[in-house]
Amino acid sequence: MLALEAEQTSTLDYPTLNTSIKDTFAAIDRFEWQAIDEILQMREQQLYREAGYKSFEEYCQAELSAWGGYRRINQLLGAKKVIDAAEELGEHIKNERQARSLLRLVKEPDKLKSAVALALSENPSPSVSDFAAAANKVVPRLPRQKTQEPLVPEFEEPLVQQSATVTVNSPTHPRHGESGTIEADPPNNWQQIVTFEDGSRELVNNAYLDAPSVSFPTERTYPKEYADALTQLKQQHQQELERLEQDLRIGLFSEATAQAQQQVTEQIEALQRLFQQQKEENTQLQQRLFELEGLRQLELENQRLQKRIQELERAVEERPAQEWNNTLTKQATKVLNKQVKKALDKTIDLRSLAVEPPKENATECLRLMGIALGNLASAMNNTQALQAAAIILGSEPNKSAIAYRMEQLQLIPQAVSDIRAVLSQRGCTWVDYCTVAAEYEAIKGDYLAELTSQETELIAELEKASCQPTTIGVGSIVAHADPYRTLYVERGEVVKDLGDEVIVAWDHWKEQSKKTDRYFRDELRFWQPQ
Known about the structure:
Elements: H1 2-8, H2 14-44, H3 56-63, H4 69-86, H5 96-100, H6 109-122, H7 128-138, E1 164-168, E2 179-182, E3 191-196, E4 201-205, E5 209-210, H8 224-318, H9 330-346, H10 350-355, H11 362-380, H12 383-393, H13 399-410, H14 412-423, H15 430-437, H16 444-450, H17 453-467, E6 477-480, E7 492-497, E8 501-506, E9 516-520, E10 524-526
Antiparallel strand pairs: 1-2, 1-5, 2-3, 3-4, 6-7, 6-10, 7-8, 8-9
Helix pairs in contact: 2-4, 6-7, 8-9, 11-12, 11-13, 12-13, 14-15, 14-16
């Protein structure tokens, strides 16, 4: 039985696993779009106030911090704006990362649509980089212009005293090494008017002058309005750093939590699989013990019957013929006993089943036990053996019903062979299967138990295919065929046939002004409950 289960278990291959991974990521993107609609309802209806939050930002930071907080919610809302602005082309934008590079074009819908169309023309399934390149082609980014700072020294110098003697100490200055005096007020905070010994007056930077009697501070001074602006900028910069640090800490915590949850989930699944496997093995061992106990009881019953036969033989040999009231002679009694022994010898030796059970499966073993009990009940007229045979074979506890059940069981191999032959034919339909299965309707449960799981699944698929219409028409209940569309999980009804196209009335549009839309048939699929 374990060998049969092992044959029915199929291992995963690359195409199946690869398709499953892609479907999982597609489902993540689809649920992310669904979350955007719910977030908009929370913000527009201000439902967060019911929980005591004063603003939408406070609600996001408190309740949604594990998923990125207010910053992540803003990104998702920006992606929603891009999808709405792109209109019908928005269905090709699969997730927020693709929409992020198009956000700067949201105020110019025509250019946004042009960028999406350009990305689709270059790649039918565009990636994030494809959308970014297309947006840059439609509206190129201007290079950042560096703001030129005034050519001033690194720090400003205070005013020096008048009549101070200074020396030019910069090797690059034409008057390097010459001395002069400062007799006039400086024109600004970083230069001085120097009168040299030859009587000429020149404007020289403070950084080029050496004045031992004048101290030059290393810090630059600013007017009050500039100092206030710089202080405010420093505070904003510090707040931004703290916010980024908090976002990083929240992101790392969320990532660690997700990894821990994934590890715990994997361990739980592994333990559940191990528990299920041990449970199945225990069930098989318990069933085997029951079978062996039944065989042991039958062996004891056989020994008791054999002993009883021997006692009867001895009683017949010891008593005279007159005690039998002329009903049987000794010779007739011996013949009868020999016939009983012969009938018992023809039954299945239950001891052989205890030593080495049939190598087919447990079901076949039970059938053989039922047949053996039936033969034993017929030979010995034993009511308990008859009832046991009826329970195992699944029939009424009488000889005729058990005999009819035995005839049915003899048909099982032929039924399984015929069913497998028709299922292996190419293009097999439900009618072909029913034509063959009708002959074995009385033992349907028996031959289905002998088929593999793949064969029973094929029968179920044939039956399901025979009940479904093949063409979408008026009255058909449909959903959108694209799994990336919101309408993929919605229910609609075809209300009008336009030839190549049909008109669909969607259930969730009943309360909206737009209730129907037109589609090609290959854009739709038959709706199935989730």
